[in-house]
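Purpose: get a first structural picture of the assembly so the mutagenesis plan has something to point at.
Setup: two entries, given in the order below. No constraints added.
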Amino acid sequence: MKALAIAVLWGLTFAAAHAAESGRTPKPVIAIEKPGQCVEATDVMRRDHMKLLKHQRDKTMHQGIRSKPHSLNECIACHASQKTGSVIGAEGFCQSCHDYAAVKLDCWDCHQPKPGQKAATGVRP
Amino acid sequence: MSNNREQAQPANDRHPLPGEGGRGEGSNVSRRGFLATSAAALAGLTLAPGINLIEIAAAKPDSEPVTSKVRWGMLIDTTRCQSGCTDCVSACGKENGLGEVTKPRTDAQWIRKIDLTDLKSGHALSLPMMCQHCANPPCVDVCPTGASFKRADGIVLVDRHTCIGCRYCMMACPYKARSFVHEPHTDQNPEVPRGQGCVESCTLCVHRVDRGGTPACVEACAAAGHNAMMFGDLNNPESEISKRIREVKTTQVRADLKLDLGVRYEGI
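Result (structure tokens, whole complex):
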């Protein structure tokens, strides 16, 4: 019975992840389409990317510091999918992992998830 | 009210980018941008005791914080501003992803054109009105979260990460300069994040200014051949805007409120 409950919970947690199946458990899609050196080591980025982004966010907003390495737009420029041109969407670099970890992303309520996007009309119909 | 937002630390970037300063926006290699690149050669050149050319002319490098040595401002010559021309408004909409105003009651307007006529004399004026970038901004006074703030260089902004959309600042602003975003957005300019539930207003195109550029409206006005808008550093006595303000009579709208505006008007 307990095993069944756990199985149901797992199913619920990862149903939304829409992740590539490998073996028995779904995994997030982490596609590195532009291989190369990230601005920090992989383990640092996995653990602390949100801290780096938040720190840079306040520096940019309040002090006008627009240096590139930790800026959100630079993340997007490198990690946007070549297929969809975006870091969100089911297999997007940001969203697939965040869905897997069940951490809500609200960056994209305001920020543009596609690099180089030029605003057309602004308002969604 | 204490603000527990993580305080920004002094620049500690692992990868300082050499030669970042003075980048113009695309083809708009501004006069300031040019001066910044040549400033390195002029380092140490002193105009007057205590005033170094490099301090007053340099566009800041990307990794440096803004300082109160500059105060950005704008001078609008209403005698040159053409009634019926809305190039500044459409340039602002394009640059900041505002789009066309189809619902004037609710759509965001960062800058709007105003036509005024003196009923007795018939004297008519046309002018753009936007955030006046006050030195003592009422919107900052009333903001309950600290989202509305003034940068060291005098640009008044809304930090959307902290804004709760209460719209108290909209009530406080004497210039009706702020707008509330009522609807979700998806095609923002990557440099200008904006979305539902926050208050916003003219940023003086802060993303351009930080890189040595000028606001989109000023550029559009010059492109239309009107040259009614001038952007520059009010703290630098040698800047074109300061010289002009010294020479001609300029007006701060509602000067009685003693807000010390960054946007001045000529000819009203």
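The interface with chain B takes residues 39, 54-55, 57-59, 61-70, 73, 76, 109-112, 114-124 of chain A (CB under 8 Å).
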